[in-house]
Amino acid sequence: MTRALNGYVKVGNGPRKVLAMSGWFGSAEDWQPLVPSLDTDEFTYVFFDYRGYGRSRERDGAFTFEEAAQDVLALADHLDWDRFSLIGHSMGGVAIQRVLLAAPARIERMAGVCAVPACGSRMDETRLAAFRAAVDDVERRAAIIAFSTGNRLSPRWSAHLARESQRVSRADAFAAYLPHWAASDFSTELRDHAVPVKLFIGEHDPTLTAELMARTWLAWYPRATFETLRNAGHYPMYEVPVALATALEDWLKQS
Fold first, then answer.
1. Domains in the chain, ordered, with CATH?
2. Which of 1, 110, 119, 228 could disulfide-pair with 185, CB 3.0 to 4.6 Å?
3. In what order do the strands lie in the sheet with 197-202?
4. Which residues of the chain have pLDDT under 50?
């Protein structure tokens, strides 16, 4: 019996394989602004949709990152990818680390883009309740997006991204993933892992800062480094797509 697969977007046909996992508000479509700048002769990219999101919107499940890791590995098997690199945006930072835990020998490199660490966002109950309220309130989603980009971008853009997030994801999936990236902690399982890690942070991101990266990712991964993306907040794939694509590939080509 053939196992069902998650939906995805494939770009390029190069020998270097890369799978990207999006954030809470996103989907595989988040990565499309990067596509004109990607080296599709050198790389093959797969932009993955979690269960309940995008091309996997109708796929039921537990909506956990352990489940998502198994879905990634099933897709990699389907694509005949023995080894590959991972990119994770925001909650995708948690997701890619779950893939690493599930199959460490298969992961070449990991890149985190404004990536939540393995200890989660460590939200207290008050903040977690505010995020839960965004499940059914598109205006709250827009407010979170505006805050995460430094309250410096067009409100119409924040509202647009909020509406798109509501369109591409199921409310039950959106709600279910929240505690797994906001309040869980599996960092003790990952300390001193040898995989090369590069973290890209936005200079206007108010929460996923250089100081946080130093206390978390850089403390747990001995081969981790970070780079600040100028003129970006929490969504550099939209804010500075050419700069992000260039920085990612400059680093991925070192492998």
1. 8-252 (3.40.50.1820)
2. 119
3. 8-11, 43-48, 16-21, 84-89, 107-113, 197-202, 224-229
4. 1
**CA–CA gap between residue 199 and residue 156 (Å, rounded):** 29
Rounded to 5°, the CA angle 188-192-195 comes to 115
- How far, in Å, CA of 12 to CA of 122, rounded? 37
Is-contact 20 47, C-beta < 8 A?
yes
8 Å CB contact between 76 and 65 = no
Residue 226 has φ and ψ, to the nearest 5°, of: -140, 160
Report how far residue 122's alpha carbon sits from residue 181's, in angstroms, rounded to the nearest whole number: 9
Q: What's the pTM? A: 0.96
